[in-house]
């Protein structure tokens, strides 16, 4: 399976890939929407708002049910940018990074992991370079790269445990590797300690740094039995609920595909049509790019939407 021009994809491979792309983007948006009404609340207020089991579905935020936040918006911009870069074969402009340590670069990095034809090292490199455009802290950059690698493994059909082991090995060689590695190992250790624990999610998330958000999301994805339970756990705490929910949803969606996502929640999701359109465009570009803008011919409609210049 690959994304290079000339790669031949079987029909079953195409269907599986599209389902995982849709699952990743929709799952991340669902987790974001599930956590949005809980943002800024303490643990007691979250428990009062949605009980011990977590929210039954997306609640109201920003004047509507199922609203998403900037986490989803930035992820979709990344998808759009990757399609355009594939058409143009360019690398874009570079901007000096800041010292930011928050999860902004993390939550927008799932699409890099959907480049399933790339080797893991190249996926990591691309995610790190793009994270550096806004986040200068080594742990924030590496957390973004680690998330991309986890999605990459899941989208290729690997268990999350296997993908986590690869991430830990690659992360150890990078700046920020000690902090990110410690956070991910704490998540894996937490899974072995007993049933799902919202207090542990909040503890792992810590002050909302990128490596903590990734660890909390990974724990929720690993410890729960299904997507809805994992997403409820990911947002049922007094920490950065939208960010943890978005990252957990991206992991579970890549792992299980779109059909594993709760349909009643999807029906409430803001911008679902836009998410699906970009997901399908991404899958189409990665599997049939040569037919859309190759030497043998081009689609005028495609190049009008994603111009070469």
Outline of this structure?
By secondary structure, the protein is mainly alpha-helical. The chain is 64% helix and 2% strand.
Can you describe this structure?
- This protein is mainly α and 309 residues long.
- The chain has one domain (11-305): ADP-ribosylation/Crystallin J1 (ADP-ribosylglycohydrolase fold).
- The protein is built from 16 helices and three strands.
- Strands 1-2 form a two-stranded antiparallel sheet.
- Strand 1 (60-61) and strand 2 (64-65) form a beta hairpin.
- Helix 1 (11-35) packs antiparallel against helix 3 (70-88), helix 6 packs antiparallel against helix 7 (138-155) and helix 9 (177-191) packs parallel to helix 11.
- The longest helix has 25 residues, at 11-35.
- It is globular and about 60 Å long.
- The model is unreliable at 1-6 and 90-97 (pLDDT under 50).
Tell me the series of helices and strands, N- to C-terminal: HHEEHHHHHHHHHHHHHEH
Q: Biggest β-sheet: count, sense, barrel?
A: 2 strands, antiparallel
Strand order, sheet with most strands: 1-2
Q: Give the rounded overall mean pLDDT.
A: 90
CATH architecture: Orthogonal Bundle
Protein structure class? mainly alpha
CATH class reads: Mainly Alpha
User: Which of globular, elongated, flat, extended, rod-shaped describes the shape?
Assistant: globular
Q: What is the C-alpha radius of gyration, as a whole number of Å?
A: 18 Å
Count of DSSP-assigned helices: 16
CATH topology (fold) name: ADP-ribosylglycohydrolase fold
The helical percent reads 55-70%
* Spatial separation of the terminal alpha carbons: 28 Å
**Poorly predicted segments:** 1-6, 90-97
Residue fraction in strands: under 5%
According to DSSP, the number of beta strands is 3
Number of domains: 1
